Amino acid sequence: MQKRIAVIGGGIIGATAAFYLGYLDQTQSLSVTLFDDDLGQATKAASGIISPWLSKRRNKRWYTLAKEGAAFYRKLVTDANLGTNVYQQTGTIVTRKDPNDLDSLFQEAEIKLRHTPAMRSVALLSSQDVGKRLPFLTNPPAGILVEGGAKIDGLHFVEALLDQAQKRHVEISRQRVFFDESGKLRTSKGLESFDKIIIATGAWMKGTLKPLNYLVKVRPQKGQLIDLTIKSKHYGGHLPVLMPESSSDIIPFEHDKLVVGATHENDGGFDLKPTSEARNRLLTNAKAFDQHLQMDQIDRVRVGTRAYTDDFAPFFGHLPDNPNILLGGGLGSSGLTTGPLIGYFLARAVVEDQLGVWDKYTKPISHYII
Ligand SMILES: Cc1cc2nc3c(=O)[nH]c(=O)nc-3n(C[C@H](O)[C@H](O)[C@H](O)COP(=O)(O)OP(=O)(O)OC[C@H]3O[C@@H](n4cnc5c(N)ncnc54)[C@H](O)[C@@H]3O)c2cc1C
């Protein structure tokens, strides 16, 4: 008899978990349903940069997870047969305002490269070199090119993954579901029992687990980014991402599309309304590098809700007293980098019916859920 598995949440964690539940379950011993209510997802709003190596963050567990998460994309893209419309390894250019800081960072990059094949190569670029790689910039900064850096479109990425999951007999159900106090799920069919459940509800996880009397220590953060069209210029889609220090990232897509973002608004909560303040701030930041950009080139503003923990680190594992309810969340602003690997680990734990040893990636779940 098939085991019944539920995945709650169809963002990057839930979609990857659902895909691998279908992919790894070769004997079809599982009956998998993913529930997603289509509300305010972080993943769909994000145009993501996969380039954690030169981050200023000094959290070792986070770095291990992000480094392995970035490398994991190669496997995921192959396993799920994803095209370059959803994942493009175009390189990323990381800048520092102070030339001495840039030199130190380059030394750090060269050392990291020795142990990190996914970075592929690093190069110190002058402002002119950056201008050649990003020809639409009027004021290119000097920077470090990391050839292994990549960009993804969050919406297309999860759609492609869920499409592949469905081909492997995963059912996708667009609805909000709730726990009752006994651990069953209330769905449109009534109260349903599942053998195992993966919770991947992002910023909404506090509400998901409240009926089971758990307190999840995550808070929402609003993020906005702008999509622009570059006027009358057409470049190949293979341009690298610019990651300027203390400013907004500039992500070229397709031939004449730019994405600029993102904001980090702690007081924005779950609000999904675009604001003129964010629009102005992001455009001003981008104009520091391309002075020709104008307000009328903004095609749309995207808004999403990230989930943050107190130590800004993601967590995953199982509920403190219930190994059949697994969960992952608190991904913050690097969730497109860390989320797929978490989804894969959780799916493997279900398929193999064995929990992994994950303490090199995350503190115990009891740190985040009481
Ligand atoms: C503007 C912006 C830019 C970003 N840029 C980057 C970047 O450059 N690089 C990077 O690595 N990361 C980036 N991120 C972060 C990244 O997008 C998130 O950390 C990640 O996508 C979170 O994924 P998740 O699966 O945990 O949650 P989500 O994507 O939020 O998915 C959770 C889903 O669960 C659903 N749900 C909740 N409760 C229920 C319920 N009871 N029943 C059914 N469904 C439910 C929600 O509606 C949602 O669809 C960015 C985020 C934003 C907002």
Automatic annotation (TrEMBL):
Residues 4-348 form the FAD dependent oxidoreductase domain. The keyword Transmembrane helix applies. Keywords: Flavoprotein, Membrane, Oxidoreductase, Transmembrane, Transmembrane helix. Belongs to the DadA oxidoreductase family. GO terms for molecular function: oxidoreductase activity. This is FAD-dependent oxidoreductase. The chain crosses the membrane at residues 5-23. Its cofactor is FAD. GO terms for cellular component: cytoplasm. The keyword Aminoacyl-tRNA synthetase does not apply. It comes from the Bacteria.
